Amino acid sequence: MSLSIGIVGLPNVGKSTLFQALTKKEVEIANYPFATIDPNVGVVLVPDERLDELAKLSKSKKVVPAVIEFVDIAGLVRGANKGEGLGNQFLANIREVDAVLYVVRAFDDPNIVHVEARVDPKDDVEILTTELVLKDLETLEKHLEKVRKDARGQNKDAIAELPVLENLHKGLADGIMAYNILKKVGGDSERSLYEKVLKNTQLLTAKKGIFLLNVKKSGEVSEEVGAYLDSFGFPEIEMNIRDELDGAGFSSEERKELGLGASMLPELIRIAYETLGLITFLTTGEDETRAWTIKRGFLAPQAAGVIHSDFEDKFIRADTIQWDKLLQIGGWSEAKQSGDIQTVGRDYIINDGDVIEVKHGA
């Protein structure tokens, strides 16, 4: 399953440094046939202590962690929605990712020029989000023109979509991101209609986001900036990106000796994974212990299809147990003997940490 986070920000805020820090540890791409081999796409391992524990239990020859893709997107400048700088390329790249990591500079350094000739995290976020909102307004206006015409012709789909589009347009015009407009929609049928419209229009501000504040040390961000970021409803993380790059090759003990402190990259990766709505299920045996990435809410046959595309259609049943229960009991055969292995059918919803063995037809 290939899902990606786009790294977005103004020039010289630490985007490329973050990308280097995230991708410094090489990943064996052959294990991930879906992964994009592209210089601005980094395939990053998802830290998961459960894998080593299970591999030790099963005496696995190989361990294959889950991965997440980070995309280094060209720096945005004011006026990007009109094509300023690399605006058109920037906005097209955002459209292709599943969520956005907004990197915001929150440190002073006279040797690193800020494109706006000042350091103001709140203003930087306003520039970023305003450019996306303006581009979305342009997209919606084109779409609205067609839908209004179809609605006048009594097209049922257009009549249903029109109030949704008009509400989205009004919210965007007031500076509200489509993601936050959707959060206020009540009722499953209405929400379903909004989601359909957002999928058709591919609005940039409908994507989930994360704020990463690039600081020299924690506590540099003012309460005013913190409150402003909170209003978006996105998770936030503070990080000294330069220190992360400098310490990327060191162990926890070596980082401590160098005064770098604990790395924040694992926490960022965890937040990114959760933001994309992903969970991990596991398979384990003598050949390998592997983490598999799926969307939260996947049924057992869908999860089986991630292991092999044929398994979804040919799914019969699955045996499953939570990873910690399996460790506690001491092995798969022991868990079967004790009756702790649960046999599930097509309607079983996979949980994070499920260890699974799929039974399928030939």
TrEMBL record:
One of its GO terms (molecular function) is ATP binding. Belongs to the TRAFAC class OBG-HflX-like GTPase superfamily. OBG GTPase family. YchF/OLA1 subfamily. SUPFAM superfamilies: P-loop containing nucleoside triphosphate hydrolases, TGS-like. GO terms for cellular component: cytoplasm. It comes from the Bacteria. InterPro entries: ATPase_YchF/OLA1 (IPR004396), Beta-grasp_dom_sf (IPR012675), G_OBG (IPR031167), GTP-bd (IPR006073), P-loop_NTPase (IPR027417), TGS-like (IPR012676), TGS-like_dom_sf (IPR023192), YchF_C (IPR013029). Residues 3-165 form the OBG-type G domain. The lineage of its organism: Bacteria, Candidatus Spechtiibacteriota. ATP binds at residues 12-17. It comes from Candidatus Spechtbacteria bacterium RIFCSPHIGHO2_01_FULL_43_30. Keywords: ATP-binding, Magnesium, Metal-binding, Nucleotide-binding. This is Ribosome-binding ATPase YchF. ATPase that binds to both the 70S ribosome and the 50S ribosomal subunit in a nucleotide-independent manner. PROSITE patterns: G_OBG. The keyword Metal-binding applies.
